[in-house]
């Protein structure tokens, strides 16, 4: 039971800590509400859990054999984060991402697949909590992580919705979106260095 508790604690701390996915979730929760942010949260959760499972099955060996692959994924992820940061920063008093008015499933899915934080969390988690010869430990870890990730990321949508009580005018929303966009851009630039 202690091992499962350790898995859950790791999953919660990695899912709820600030990062690009959670910045976008917070912003979307404020601008669009919890219900309209759920597809983004679901995409991020499924994307991360799929990445975790793939790494558990051996994708980490590919990145070890091809070290430039991880750096390339990092640059692609940072570029995607910069794109999302631009859309948030210049969205005015609402969040707009291309033809959609809110971040959706695909953005969440892609962002976590390309997120260097997600790769690092997956590599560290698989190394710490799974046994290479025992796939049941990988299934257990991924199952726990799926539920905890959905709740952890989703809590940022709830926080964004609660912030709506404090941020009620269009100018306040513009300032909030600008701050969140700049914060996301700073994360992306940090990852590129």
Automatic annotation (TrEMBL):
It is found in: Cell membrane. InterPro entries: LeuE-type (IPR001123). It holds the Pfam family LysE. It comes from the Bacteria. It is a multi-pass membrane protein. Keywords: Cell membrane, Membrane, Transmembrane, Transmembrane helix. The chain crosses the membrane at residues 39-60, 72-89, 109-131, 138-159, 171-192. This is LysE family translocator. It comes from Kiloniella laminariae.
């Amino acid at each position: 039971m202690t091992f499962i508790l350790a898995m859950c604690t790791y999953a919660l701390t990695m899912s709820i800590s600030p990062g690009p996915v959670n910045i976008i979730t917070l912003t979307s929760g404020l601008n669009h509400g919890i219900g309209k942010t759920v597809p983004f949260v679901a995409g991020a959760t499924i994307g991360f859990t799929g990445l975790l499972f793939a790494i558990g099955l051996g994708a980490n060996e590919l990145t070890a054999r091809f070290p430039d692959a991880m750096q390339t994924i990092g640059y692609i992820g940072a570029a995607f984060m910069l794109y999302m940061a631009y859309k948030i920063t210049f969205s005015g008093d609402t969040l707009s991402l291309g033809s959609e008015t809110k971040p959706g499933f695909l953005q969440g899915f892609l962002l976590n697949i390309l997120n260097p934080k997600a790769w690092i969390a997956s590599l560290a988690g698989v190394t710490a909590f799974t046994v290479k010869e025992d796939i049941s430990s990988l299934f257990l870890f991924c199952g726990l992580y799926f539920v905890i990730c959905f709740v952890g990321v989703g809590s940022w949508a709830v926080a964004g919705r609660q912030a709506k009580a404090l941020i009620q005018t269009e100018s306040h929303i513009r300032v909030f979106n600008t701050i969140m966009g700049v914060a996301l851009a700073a994360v992306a630039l940090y990852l590129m260095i």
